[in-house]
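To: structure subgroup
Subject: Chain for Friday's discussion

All,

I'm putting the inputs and outputs inline so they're searchable in the archive.
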Amino acid sequence: MNGRRAVLQPLLGATLVGVAALTLTPEGAGWSWGSPAEELRWYATGLDSPATVRQLLGNLGLLVVPAALAVLRWPALGRPARLVTLAAAAGAGIELLQWALPLGRVVSPLDAVLNAAGAVVAGLLVAGLLAAVQPDSAIRLIAARVTGMPSCACRVRSAIRSPADSPNRSAKNAWPAGRNSQCSVSSVPPPAGTIV
């Protein structure tokens, strides 16, 4: 297990335990329905109240840390469609558990939307930071989207180097092939001197 996994997985697990503790501890018996229209009106008219602002920020922030850690651990989760899907599933899952278990909680579709919105924003910010730190990866992904080629075939000059160009890169890292058979055949030829 590499260092990032060794640190991020336990942190992610701990934050998920924290989310469960915040959302799934009993506050009575049964459940009540939180009407989205009533809750929207409550938020809109109560932004001058510290309790309303605290509730709003709490719902927006509930899944921020787990989303950020998940994208750091699995960068592919930073793609918008995946992030929205997982964040919506997490928010809806919390509300479904609050409904299914006799916790005395308010089941609120608006809470699920706010939880997901906070997670999506956090995940996209982390994905953007990762792309800034690893620009070659981001450029390859964008080029793959534009050209329709596999991302491994969309190399830019800064990402394609022969082993002689960089003492830190080995021949096997210069032009990847392997798991994805599409990566071993490319319509974009590697630069001269690159070992394929």
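Points worth raising on Friday:
The first strand starts at residue 31 and ends at 33.
Confidence is low (pLDDT under 50) at residues 153-163, 169-188.

D.
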